[in-house]
Amino acid sequence: MPELPEVEVTRLGIRPHVLGQRIRTAVVREPRLRLPVNADLVERVVGQVIHDVHRRGKYLLLALDTGAVLIHLGMSGQLRVLPAATPPRRHDHVDLVLDSGDCLRLHDPRRFGVLCWIDDGEKHPLLRDLGPEPLGAAFTGTMLHARSRGRSAAIKGFIMDARIVVGVGNIYANEALFRAGIDPRRAAGGVSRVRYERLAAAIRTVLAEAIAEGGTTLRDFTQPDGKDGHFRLSLAVYGRVDAPCLRCGGPIRSVRIGGRSSYFCPHCQH
DNA sequence: CTACGTACCTGCCAGC
DNA sequence: TGCTGGCAGGTACGTA
To answer: Separation of CA A40 and C1' B8 in angstroms?
Structure first.
């Protein structure tokens, strides 16, 4: 489900509720996520204070006294802040119960998410090979251009590769390529530097706009307070097969690229 | 190294 | 009314 904007909206939503809170207890109802929840997670985190909530790509990190809780929402994960007494629903796998009386609750029907403990100083393999943050200074069109030389695979898959740049998933890859006027099927290695500059700018603006709108709610995603994100109303191509292109009026087409549904305007994107 | 297919898991929806 | 197949916002792994 969540791409960078939804994860950032989640971070901003939970942060004021968890900052400075001590973890009173933790409950693991279902440890079988993409990586198993540490068998000793509860004893690791109980009594520790949450000092900050960081994001790296689509990963969240709760910074505690002696380490961090690493969280990934996979396709269907949600974090909610609720009164600790709220009865758990199906697929509410982990609670961190705070001194405030609230709990931070991970809900993830498909269990592609991750919640695990990292000791201070430990380099987690999931974070090791990540590329630059798309909203940071290290992410540029020049860098995309350089990394893409010699690659014959589709540019859409290239910008969804977290080793190249983090945070761009299926929705925002489609939207950014539309904004940049680039056909998602085009070989990454054959796109010019000028066009990569346009693409980098499109990725930054689409992600920033989506964060400002509270993310994209299609079905699963909700903000930590339970509200929907509104960027769905701004989607130009994603999910709009046969609907009129907002720029030229022609029909949006759908193709599969790397096993993922892809949407584009054949008239506006080359 | 790159490229591509497959697997993980549950829920939902269209079509029969 | 079921049932079935296909699809869903992600990522890691195996194989060429």
So the answer is: 24
The SS3 call for residue A78 is strand
pTM of the model: 0.97
Cβ of A232 less than 7 A from strand C: no
Tell whether domain A4-124 is in CATH 2.30.40.10. Answer: no
The catalytic residue positions of A are 2-3, 58, 260
Determine the CATH number of domain A141-264: 1.10.8.50
Mean pLDDT in residue range A210-239: 91
Interval A218-245 mean pLDDT: 91
pLDDT of residue A222: 84
Q: Measure Cα distances from A269 to A161, A245, A252, A253 in Å.
A: 21, 11, 11, 11
A266 touches strand B (CB under 7 A): no
